[in-house]
Amino acid sequence: MFKILLVCTGNTCRSPMAAALLTDMVLQAGLADKIAVESAGIAAGCQPASNQAQAVMRQAGLQLDKHCSKQLVPAKLETADLVLTMTVSHKRAVANMTRGMTGKIYTLAEFAGQAADVSDPFGGSEAEYRMCAGQLKHLLTQAWEKIVSLAGK
């Protein structure tokens, strides 16, 4: 099983939305037996996904209503085959948590062949969350073939 870990700050907005979108892509491709997707936050407690994130994912036909944010811990990093962060600062924080992760940690944009961080919609309007979800979907779509190739479909 190829394990992908998506990381943001509080694990209430970006990384759970990215995980929901990527999990849907995995299911649609019939690869649920090959690819596992999780999310975590660098500074997370057990909080639900934000109301706006839940609403935007519901509009996309996905659910975040049972999401409980998870704190990123070194053990979770060590079991991941690929760690995709939302920003360069997240990438640095992840790299500082454990050694031997070279070649496994990327920003989502970097992995998708782009340069921009995923903007944080925390505290913003539903429209800002929709824009963030659109950015996530675009980056995940750009990275999809690379993910499938690494997973060894």
TrEMBL record:
InterPro entries, per database record: LMW_PTPase, Ptyr_pPase, Ptyr_pPase_sf, Tyr_phospatase_low_mol_wt
Domain called Phosphotyrosine protein phosphatase I: residue spans: 2-146
Keywords, alphabetical: Hydrolase, Protein phosphatase
Entry-linked Pfam families: LMWPc
SMART domains found in the cross-reference section: LMWPc
Active site, UniProt feature: C8 (nucleophile), R14, D120 (proton donor)
GO molecular function: protein tyrosine phosphatase activity
Family stated for the protein in its record: Belongs to the low molecular weight phosphotyrosine protein phosphatase family.
Record-linked PANTHER family: LOW MOLECULAR WEIGHT PROTEIN TYROSINE PHOSPHATASE (PTHR11717), LOW MOLECULAR WEIGHT PROTEIN-TYROSINE-PHOSPHATASE ETP-RELATED (PTHR11717:SF31)
Protein name as it appears in the record: Protein-tyrosine phosphatase
Organism field: Sporomusa malonica
